[in-house]
Amino acid sequence: MRDARRPDLTATATVLLAGGRGSRLHELTSRECKPALPFAGPRRIVDFTLANAVRSGLGRMIVATQYRPETLARHLKTHWAGQFAPGALRLREGTAVTGTPQGYGGTAAAVAANLDELQAEGVRELVVLAADHVYAMDYAGMVAAHRASGASATVAVDTVPRHRASAFGVVRTSEGSRIESFLEKPDPVPADPALPGRAQVSMGIYVFDLDWLASVLRIIPGTAQDFGNDILPLAVALGEANAYRVPDEGFYWRDVGTLDAYRLAQLEFQRGEPPCALPPRIGASEHEMRAASGELIQFAFRMQTGGMSLHAPRLGADTPGRWTMLDESVLLPGARVAPGVRLTRTIVAPGTSVPAGLVIGEDADEDARWFRRTEEGTVLVTTQMLARRAADRGRPVAPFADSRMGRSA
To answer: Which whole number is the average pLDDT over 254-279?
Structure first.
């Protein structure tokens, strides 16, 4: 029996935008789309949004895929399709749906291309979600707030430090919750007198009246159908956009779209109590994941303090230099580190084996020579980088394009 206190979602459907490459994650997304990247042990980034949708009672979902969709599609079919009614979780790959090599031309274009299917099913409200953020949220409350507002479009908003806000759509609201301005990734970010030092930003979570959205999509050219650049500014101009503010206290939401953000968020889940509800474990157990990283194979025990862990080798623990140190570092599934390795602010890519005695993260120039190093000091290490280092050691090597300057490659 449906809980009378919760909104009826039988005429509500969801489109999950899962086609992004995540270019700011560089080599990590060379073979995988961003939503399929591992996060918090035996999970993937997309699992957080899927778990939210299931808990919220959103029973129909179209997943719009595009870049490198193979792993993501397999994961969703294997681990999440059973959480929906038969046929209610549907994958729609951009090139197949549009019949064009470029696929979906923008975030809203992914909805436009699947609009006939949604309207044929009698959908009245559409929840649009991004597949690449880490958070726990009940979308049913947002749907209820959307209905109560009378708006045609509702945007979930959170606040972030003003210096970080240029990575998002920046929202200014009136005394109520109507949105009076929306700027997509402005630089500089205008000051908001109501939020000193901070800015209100879009979380990339929307609720639309489907008929209204369909009418808007019909008048916006297919080459310019993007929520942040086109749909939301128009909704604001028409007075049809409302803000849904997430709780101020205790709410955790992270956009893990850069190497620094990805590493730091992973560390938040490694230290004690997780900062938000975890999706159920998908696939391998925690024991199996630790074994895959070499933790249960090469090392006798581990000591953890804050963001640093020390690993004692099974053999030669009393020999100086044989202990392994990981400081503010993340080993992704299948990564291995040999005895004597020291890693600081480092991400070791899946399947990468770091050889004995290698020190990474303590010498910026040396790191930049062989690995991908961000301006903030995160170092990404892959198998290919280690092979390059082994082959070219001793010869001058040009650093990666963004190794010291923080530029995207």
So the answer is: 93
pTM for the full predicted model: 0.89
The CATH number of 12-265, from 3.40.1160.10, 3.30.950.10, 3.40.50.720, 3.90.550.10, is 3.90.550.10
CA dist 125 → 12, 350, 352 (Å): 5, 39, 45
- Would you state the pLDDT for residue 247? 76
* Phi-psi domain of 187 (left: phi exceeds 0; alpha: psi -120 through 50; beta: other): beta
How far apart, in Å, are the Cα atoms of 348 and each of 193, 219, 271?
42, 47, 18
- The CA-based angle 211-143-220, given to 5 degrees, is 35
Query: pLDDT tier at 403 (50, 70, 90 boundaries)?
Result: very low
Helix count (H) and strand count (E) of the chain?
A: 12, 22
Segment among 8-17, 87-96, 115-124, 217-226 with least mean pLDDT: 217-226
* β strands within 175-233, DSSP E: 179-184, 198-209
Give the model confidence (pLDDT) of 137-151 as tens digits. Answer: 999 999 999 999 999
Query: What is the DSSP code (8-state) at residue 26?
Result: G
The 10 Å Cβ neighbour count of residue 339 is 20
> How far, in whole angstroms, is CA 101 from its chain's centroid?
25
Q: Record the tokens describing residue 32, joined without a space.
A: 């995988």
Q: Give yes or no for a contact between 343 and 325, defined as CB atoms under 8 angstroms apart.
A: yes
337 in Cβ contact with 326 (< 8 Å): yes
How far is Cα 172 from Cα 174, in angstroms, rounded to an integer? 7
Mean pLDDT of the chain: 87
Ranges 53-57, 296-300, 332-336: which has the least confidence: 296-300
Q: How far apart are CA 108 and CA 326, in angstroms?
A: 42
Return the CATH number of the domain spanning residue range 285-392: 2.160.10
Helix (H, G, I), strand (E, B) or coil at 146: helix
